[in-house]
Amino acid sequence: MFEWLTVYIAQSYAQSALAYSLTVLALVMSCAAGFGALSEVVARKLATRDADRRPAESRR
Amino acid sequence: MYLALADTFTNVIALFAIALGIGILIRFLGHLGCLAVVPALNIFGFPMSYAVGTGTAHLFARAIVDTFRQGTMTNPDFRRGILLGLQTAAGVSIGKVILLTLAGLNLTGAPVRWIYIVLLIAAGIALARNRGPNGLPRLPRTAGLLPFVGLFAGILTGFTGASGAIVLIPAMTILGMTRERASATAALAMLLAAGWGTFTFALGGRVEAVAVLVLVAGSTIGEQIGLIFERRVPNFTVRKPGCILLITTGLALALKQFGLTTPGGYLLWGTSLLVVVFVVIRAIVGTRLKAPDPDPAVNKILV
């Protein structure tokens, strides 16, 4: 499924190791930042739901 | 899937399932959860130097994901964190040179595997007995030792791909820092050191970018599953699956070391899948606990 991508990556590394390593850094940073932002959104939603539930629990 | 740089084949679905398990581990055990990455990659066919390079890139990605978590970067000692980061980065370079020299002599596998077997089983047993850095003794005014600690943590990261934070946090706690501040400072140091490690390993052609992305996606999703599970069961229960998975990873790596790669792979994959299924079932049918306080219960940091 991703063979073309891995072969392309290997070819680009063969052409320029420095360009490859900078690309890997940028790729890892941008993907991790995206996932980090998404996970924070989920964590905040769960925290908001807990905050909404807390008054109902205290009334019981 | 064929990975052209490492010249090896790997199963992406199995790798993703393992990454889900690792994400749950990271949620429950903090930095100790990252210990399972390099053994998993090695068992699934990565040569050790590629597993360490890819594991270091995963550490960098995790460090970035962690900066988004509320509480992770709260009140770090910036000066000490940056200095420690530079020292750890120097250690990473030393560790990488040792690793690649051994790889050139085709001697990398066994030493790194034995380090991991000891680390994983010791960490699993220690956590099962509930020993954390809180019970460690405190030494007065010996902060002069920190550069050596940073260098050692860096060599550990560069040589094995294990997170240096497992050394830095207890060391800073022993040397008198509060645990929260030590966690935040170590997170800052590891962000710098793992970033440098990713760059140098990629320069040496030891980072498989596609595998890193699969690992990051899987571990982040696994962490969210762990977060939902955490709200359904008491805190001491959530550690048990993590300890079991750590010890099983050590045993699977021991099987690989003795030439039983396929049983080791099935053991690791099977346990990881069982833990994920157990966690998902408990998250769906478990009794919800009393709503936690808004302080960072969802974002706690463990060693």
Write the layout of secondary structure elements.
The complex is a heterodimer of chains A (60) and B (303).
Chain A: H1 3-15, H2 17-59
Chain B: E1 2-3, E2 8-9, H1 12-29, H2 37-43, H3 48-67, H4 78-104, H5 109-128, H6 146-160, H7 165-174, H8 179-203, H9 209-230, H10 235-257, H11 261-285
Antiparallel strand pairs in B: 1-2
Structure, briefly:
With 60 residues, chain A is mainly α.
Give an account of the 3D structure:
The complex is a heterodimer of chains A (60) and B (303). Chain A is mainly α. In chain A, 93% of the residues lie in helices and 0% in strands. Chain A has helices spanning 3-15, 17-59. Chain B is built from eleven helices and two strands, in the order E-E-H-H-H-H-H-H-H-H-H-H-H. In chain B, strand 1 and strand 2 form a beta hairpin. In chain B, helix 4 runs parallel beside helix 8 and helix 10 (235-257) runs antiparallel to helix 11. The interface between A and B is large, with 38 and 46 residues.
| Largest interface, C-beta closer than 8 angstroms, per-chain residues | A-B, 38 and 46 residues
- List unreliable stretches of 5+ residues of chain B: 293-303
Q: Determine Rg of chain B (CA atoms, Å).
A: 18 Å
Mean pLDDT of chain A: 78
Proportion of residues in extended strands of chain B: under 5%
Radius of gyration of chain A: 21 Å
Helix content of chain A: over 70%
Order of helices and strands of chain A: HH
Low-confidence segments of chain A: none
Task: Give the number of DSSP strands of chain A.
Answer: 0
How would you characterize the largest beta sheet of chain A? none
Distance between the terminal alpha carbons of chain A, to the nearest Å?
54 Å
Strand content of chain A: under 5%
Label the overall shape of chain B: globular
What kind of assembly state do the chains in view correspond to?
A: heterodimer
The largest pleated sheet of chain B is described as: 2 strands, antiparallel
Number of strands of chain B: 2
- SSE topology string of chain B: EEHHHHHHHHHHH
